[in-house]
Amino acid sequence: MADAILDYVHSEVLPGLPGPERRAASTAIEVHTDDPYVVQVGPGVLDQVGSLAGDTSRVAILHPPTLRHVARRVAGQVTGETLLIELPDGEAAKTVAVLTDCWDRLAAAGFTRSDLVIGLGGGATTDLSGFVAASWLRGVRFLNLPTTVLAMVDAAVGGKTGINIGAGKNLVGAFHEPIGVLCDTDLLRTLDRRELRSGMAEVIKCGFIAHPEILDLVESDMTAALTPASELQTEVIRQGIAVKARVVAGDLRERTSTPDHVGREQLNYGHTLAHAIEQREHFRWRHGEAISVGMVFVAEVAGRLGLIDEALVWRHRTILEAAGLPTRYEPDAWPELRATMALDKKNRGTTLRLVLLQGLGVPVIAEGVDEDLLAEAYAATCR
User: Fold this and answer.
1) Rounded to two decimals, what is the model's pTM?
2) Within this chain, do residues 58 and 120 fall inside the same structural domain, yes or no?
3) 45 is in which domain, residue-wise?
4) Do 280 and 298 share a structural domain?
5) 146 shares its domain with 218
6) CATH number for the domain including 140?
7) How would you write the pLDDT of the chain (383 residues) with one tens digit per residue?
């Protein structure tokens, strides 16, 4: 009965909702990498699945349980045989066990190199689905259908795929670019407030590292920014995606950063501490919640190094708190968090590398920051 009600809501009620955002045209954002693709953002773009998939013999649609009704809708748009693979919710999908189960399902269905994998869901789903596509037969085509703010702005664009292991988050993965990304803002209407707030952390991050206009827009009307499919929310999502598209076009595989010129690593702003918090919390915290604390931490570090002024340090805390995001963590957790941070992917050998700001929209890499200063910055974060 519950599934039948959800199917009715998504197939009959949501498509008929009134409002200017429903009538607005979608926006196309080009990602200029070695294998260029387009990100479509706006209401109703999910209807483009069939044209992107093309004439494909087999299509696997990986999705969480809550989106099985949308997965069936997507399956109805593609030609050929469809395989629906239901994944665990959230980060529980990003495990070796789930990955091997997906491989077994593809093998049993006879998937070949000419077939297609579709990732439908939040960031964890698109990360796992992309890695399934990257690793099956050394790489098959992949289409991303993100359904959360965070996945649209971050996980679905840029070709990063991967899973978690006991030692840390995203330590196993591959770069595998999608053939396209469809960000249907109508799907955001079903998200709960916590998920919407979590996604706003990645939007705000893009404002701090590259496009301050995003911060001005969000601060001008936080209620609208957190309202699903509103004009303002759609606009800041578009701007956040545009930031990521520009960054990954110049440095797809995180190879060009220097201390004074930061490439793709700038997208990890706040992530070093965030991943350690997620690990410590066994992923009970949402990704954006952890990033929020992580951004306050690196702002405190940058302030103590004299890279940014106190006003910019506090702007981090005020805008994130206005979005309803956490800005503090447990004061006594620093030794454990610092040990986990030693495994961060940006590190070189034993040297911790942090993405900081040297002014609004000016990211830099700081290497080997004094340990006492890091501890002081963390203590200030927790106050």
Assistant:
1) 0.89
2) yes
3) 2-190
4) yes
5) no
6) 3.40.50.1970
7) 434 433 433 444 444 333 433 445 689 999 999 889 999 999 999 999 999 999 899 999 999 999 999 999 999 999 989 999 999 999 999 999 999 999 999 999 999 999 999 999 999 999 999 999 999 999 999 999 999 999 999 989 989 999 999 888 899 999 999 999 999 999 999 999 999 999 999 999 999 999 999 999 999 999 999 999 999 999 999 999 999 999 999 888 878 777 668 899 999 999 999 999 999 999 999 999 999 999 999 999 999 999 999 999 999 999 999 999 999 999 999 999 999 999 876 766 678 999 999 999 999 999 999 999 999 999 999 99
Same domain, 244 and 109: no
Give the domain-ending residue among 190, 216, 242.
190
Same domain, 154 and 246: no
Please tell me the total count of domains within the chain.
2
User: Tokens 């942090």 map to which residue?
Assistant: 354
What CATH number should be reported for the domain holding residue 311? 1.20.1090.10
Same domain, 126 and 224: no
Together in a domain, 201 and 226 = yes
Instruction: Point out the domain boundary residue: 135, 167, 190.
Output: 190
Quick one: 164 and 289 in the same domain? Answer: no
At what angle are helices 96-109 and 123-135 packed, to 10 degrees? 50
